[in-house]
Amino acid sequence: MARPKPEAFDKQKIVAENRRARYDYAIDTVYEAGIALTGTEVKALRSGQGSIAESYAEVKDEQIWLINSNIPEYSHGNRENHEPKRPRKLLMHSREISKLHGAVNRQGMTLVPLSVFFNGRGRAKVELALAKGKKAPDKRAATKEREWKRDQGRIMRDKG
């Protein structure tokens, strides 16, 4: 008998979120990946520091790397403190990596980190999306749609 599939990501504590990604990109598929971190990086993330606003992921040598993410140095760290903007290896199954590599190469898609969080077991994870960049008219249409939904909610609330 097959083991039941786990439910959607069990996010316990969101540390960093890339809110701009959903506006700039059309999200296709979302994956969960672990991050290879040092001790001071984990402590800095647990204290709520960290940013992935201008970061992206790329496939190199059958591995996925998180580039340009910022985890500031841990305040109580010693000389073994980490480098804030170093590339960090993302941990995924090789089948998933090859699938992402093919999509990026053939279809011109991008790997965008959506959020960094700690799961129920206390492990640091990244929510990684396979996405395609939106053009300006698409962004305008999305804004128009969002505003109409907001107005629709107001009308329904007021009219009852």
Structure description:
The chain is α+β, with helices and mostly antiparallel strands and 160 residues long. Helix content is 31%, strand content 32%. The protein is built from 4 helices and 7 strands. The longest helix has 24 residues. The protein is globular and about 60 Å long. The protein starts with 10 loop residues before the first strand and ends with a helix.
Offer a few descriptive terms.
160 residues; alpha+beta; 7-stranded antiparallel β-sheet
Question: If helices are DSSP runs of H or I spanning 4 or more residues, what is the number of helices?
Answer: 4
What structural class is derived from the secondary structure elements? Answer: alpha+beta
Strand portion: 25-35%
**Mean pLDDT over all positions:** 86
The end-to-end distance, rounded to whole angstroms, is 50 Å
Number of strands: 7
Name the shape in a single word. globular
Note poorly predicted spans.
Answer: none
Strand order of the largest sheet: 1-6-7-2-5-4-3
Radius of gyration: 18 Å
Order of helices and strands: EHEHEEEHEEH
Main sheet summary: 7 strands, antiparallel
* Helix percent band: 25-40%
Write the layout of secondary structure elements.
Elements: E1 11-17, H1 21-24, E2 25-35, H2 39-46, E3 56-60, E4 63-67, E5 88-91, H3 94-107, E6 110-119, E7 124-133, H4 136-159
Antiparallel strand pairs: 1-6, 2-5, 2-7, 3-4, 4-5, 6-7
